């Protein structure tokens, strides 16, 4: 089995870049001066104009000798960088260059011998998963609602959009299984760090927080500092700064939640409630098997969470079984369960009557909703 190496173990990190990333001549790269995607609408359309910790991402073209020109994503290092920032920026390329999996973003190469320093990857037409889910809500949901009301479609027709979504979740799990098999912990698995191509294939990206785990995968990675995506992170990782593949599994459970609640703006109290052992009811249109997978990912004891290999197997079994994907409106008790999460939470919550998420709306039911802008939050 191929062993992946932490680029920071090299005495000279530039050596890791040379070993794992292909150097590309700057003459082969052309950055788009007039991007074909509207930057203003980058959160609701195919795009790659995101500001990162060290650089900016834009689109461009790559033409290598003897190969066809391809559209690529280009991450450039911001001017005025320090040597440490350059080293950290290129370490992501050293990491990506060691991966070869259809559900992990592919590194085309780097430009290090001229300015600006670049990391060049494959282009993902549908952008990040969180943006894709926002703009594609109607695609996944409207047909389901119409068929449910008119009862004009067979069960396979009704379930197809959801099966497509489950297939995307399966791809994410497959990419994470690959990383876990290599004793590699991502530490920042979130919808914003999953990219979607034109065929709706999901690929794990953004390895800025990743750290290599040596030897035993049961030994956690300890971090003495750095930024942690609190709302996506397992309790033991937040409290003790201990990261394992099991903490990535917790984050994957949040990915499932966001995918199935993609039209709902979640307050921070939801994530706090999960950490305090409250378990949310299944969202509307969410199969019971998928909801149970969510709950399994949020086991308090990390040793009780499923491994990504198990998650992939579970999703493989789920996709062809249409009966498990039968869609039914949730009972009123589900809404009451959501209410109880906040009413019993130690956090102070403001409520108002007469509103509920649009996908759960009923002419016969009105329930409270969080209204304080400071408490409204949609995890990305």
Provide an overview of this structure:
A hairpin with a 7-residue loop joins strand 2 (about 55-60) and strand 3 (about 70-75). About 40% of the residues are buried. The chain folds into two domains: about 20-125, Phosphorylase Kinase, domain 1; about 130-140 and about 160-325, Transferase(Phosphotransferase), domain 1 (Orthogonal Bundle). It starts with 12 loop residues before the first helix and ends in a 10-residue tail after the last strand. Residues about 35-50, about 145-160, about 210-215 and about 320-380 have low confidence and may be disordered. The protein is α+β, with helices and mostly antiparallel strands and about 375 residues long. The strands form five sheets. The chain has a five-stranded antiparallel β-sheet with strand order 1-2-3-5-4, with helices on one face. It has a two-stranded antiparallel ribbon with strand order 6-9. It is about 35% helix and about 10% strand.
């Amino acid at each position: 089995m191929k062993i992946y190496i932490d680029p920071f173990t090299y005495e000279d990190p530039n050596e890791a870049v040379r070993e794992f990333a292909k150097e590309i001549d700057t003459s082969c790269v052309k950055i788009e001066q007039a991007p074909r995607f509207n930057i203003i609408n980058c959160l609701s359309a195919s795009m790659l104009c995101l500001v990162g910790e060290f650089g900016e991402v834009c689109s461009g073209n790559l033409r290598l000798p003897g190969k066809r020109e391809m559209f690529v994503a280009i991450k450039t290092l911001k001017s005025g960088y320090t040597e440490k920032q350059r080293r950290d920026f290129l370490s992501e390329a050293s990491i990506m260059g060691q991966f070869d999996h259809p559900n992990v973003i592919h590194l085309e190469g780097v430009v290090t011998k001229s300015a600006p320093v670049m990391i060049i990857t494959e282009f993902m037409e549908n952008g990040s998963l969180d943006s894709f889910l926002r703009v594609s809500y109607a695609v996944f949901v409207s047909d389901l609602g119409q068929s449910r009301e008119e009862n004009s479609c067979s069960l396979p027709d009704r379930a197809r959009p959801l099966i497509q979504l489950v297939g995307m979740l399966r791809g994410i799990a497959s990419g994470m299984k690959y990383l876990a098999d290599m004793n590699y912990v991502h530490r920042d698995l979130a919808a914003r760090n999953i990219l979607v191509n034109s065929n709706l294939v999901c690929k794990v990206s953004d390895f800025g927080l990743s750290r290599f785990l040596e030897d035993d995968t049961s030994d956690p990675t300890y971090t003495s500092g750095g930024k942690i995506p609190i709302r996506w992170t397992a309790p033991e990782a937040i409290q003790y700064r201990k990261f394992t593949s099991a903490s990535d599994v917790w984050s994957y459970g949040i990915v499932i939640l966001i995918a199935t609640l993609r039209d709902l703006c979640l307050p921070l109290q939801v994530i706090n409630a999960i950490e305090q052992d409250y378990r949310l009811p299944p969202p509307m249109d969410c199969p019971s098997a998928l909801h149970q997978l969510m709950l399994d990912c949020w086991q308090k004891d990390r040793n009780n969470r499923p491994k990504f290999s198990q998650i992939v197997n579970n999703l493989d079994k789920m996709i062809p079984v249409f009966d498990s994907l039968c869609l039914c409106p949730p009972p009123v008790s589900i809404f009451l369960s959501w209410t109880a999460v906040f009413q019993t939470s130690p956090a102070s919550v403001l409520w108002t009557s007469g509103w509920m998420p649009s996908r759960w709306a009923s002419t016969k039911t009105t329930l409270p909703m969080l209204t304080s802008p400071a408490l409204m939050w949609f995890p990305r």
